[in-house]
Amino acid sequence: MSDARTDMLGRVNKALAILPERAKLPDWDAELAIARKLVEERDALEVFAERIKLVNGLAMTDIAELATYLKKGGWLSGYCDPALVPLLAPKLGPEFNLSTEFDRTRVDDFAFGITRAAGGIAETGTIILNDTLTSRRLGALTPWVHIAVLPRKLIHRTLTDAVHALGDDPNVIWCTGPSKTADIEGILIEGVHGPGAQIALVIE
Amino acid sequence: MSVSPIDGFAAGLTTETRDAVYKSTKTTHEKRTKLLFDHFPDANRLREIAGEIKQHVIENLDTYLPEVEKKLRANGVQVHWAPTAEAANQAVLDIMRKRNATKIVKAKTMVSEETELTHFLEKNGVECLETDLGEFIVQIDHDHPSHIVRPIIHKSRRQVAESFEKNGLGKYNDDPNVITQRARVFLRQKYLEADVGLTGANFVVAESGRLVLVTNEGNSRFCLAATRCHIAMVGIEKILPRDRDLALLLNLLARSATAQQLTVYTEFIKGPRKPTQPDGPDEMHVIFVDNGRIDVLASDCRDILRCIRCGACLNVCPVYRQASGHAYRSVYPGPVGAVLSPLLAKEKFPELADLPKASSLCGACQEVCPVNIPIPDLLLRLRNKNKQEHGPSSGTPPMGAWSILASQPFAWKNALALGGTVNYVPRALMPAPLRKWQDVRTLPPWRGGEFRKWLKNRPTSTKAQS
Q: Considering the entire predicted model, what is its pTM?
């Protein structure tokens, strides 16, 4: 193995030795990569709600609204991060079955999954998940509906801000709308492997 | 003049396929341009800077590779080095054998297409499944992808429905929604059964050792939620210097590839799962693959290593739009493939030497490239390389007779005068190559000598002035 390493790095060195000088790393203004007209002078939540809608996701601020939405879809049983049950169970009502255990042998029994979001991005309508706050990767991924509970103050204004906040978590996932494909004849289909419905429940 | 292989492939396409490829590449290209320039007043500046960053990386791989290796190790990642395709495949198999693993699920990675990993693992008794919908269909059809981002751009829903039926995935139904739901049900069991998940990487950041993966379907996310071991196969050129550079590259990649502001899932992987997280790999490997890249680095075509595999140059290319991807007979089609494929083919270069010629050098590919690769220049360098190393190939008309004529005024004058007889030769009597040439073209009437006549008879006043 180390032989392969020595061999490859040796050949890289040789390949580059012929260059009279090397290209410099450009410094660039962070402003360059911000779609400023999308985010300027407006409340981050307002922009977030608008952008998430454009990618066929949903932002809600009211638990009763979420309950109505889930009932309408017939999604009454699902996984819920244990830490969120005290907040949600009373307001969702008794017809909902919130399971705090996720069983990977019966993934299809969970119609929805409710987990905490680590942040949001207004510019793109993105929900941020990570290993620290998402109680189960599978619980946020396999159900048809994923609900991310997102404290309003965690919404970043721009993608650039969110890049700066990546931190040390080993698994940061930006989710921008529901899982989708256009592989077959370019026709957009949602819910390929992950959620077919992506919801941000924004709380104060 | 023989028909070039690309023309041959283009001629063999059904109208249905050609229309499908043409329409969807054109639509994606137009949306891409609108989105990019709507959002960024100085969109071309983004491309130029991104190009400079990637050029800096490839010209400093000697320092970046050890740096990124160190960071990955510090993040708890095991790093492997694979000089060849065989070594890369073997590394995957060795990791699996060590874990007694027999099942692997795969997200889309171009480098594993290069190494033909799936085929290799299947031969060695491993159940290896592509999970990207398009790649999955390619796998069950024993076909090849024809586009970097849209592997089955060449297939109709009817063809897909037929393959699903043939492979026991339900009765014939060509509704894309039904097809996708069937794949969802079938594949999720496969993820949950597999021990190992394999991905590529769109970027690896040197300063943090962060791997970045982008997908729309969420298949790579599933690979990294259901399995216990993550293997990432990564070409050595995938490095970015700093996390902050991601802001630029991610904005460019999604818009260029699929005309989206951002792909649905952007994953930033920095080692195995957290101990408090119940799901996901607790073991992670990165295999750095050469497979010809270092030779490209040593050549005067090294700029092609900037490529971030977005497929924008395919979508805009008039040749790709007519010929589709299989015409390029290699993993990478389109303008990027016309440069990269012959180079990666090494000693088989002559077999693909026609690819750099399949271009009018119109420059559209460079104009859309998110890392501003001078593809037309590289195509010219490869044409030259082929001529220097292998001499004129078939398809190039001999120019010897022409150069004798053109260098001797007397011979030239007579040739011009005699050329007119061509207008009276019936097509059936013309030499075979010329006849063939006229299959798809009309020879204009010969008007040789007109200019000389005009020059001789022009008014004398003009003569005096000059």
A: 0.91
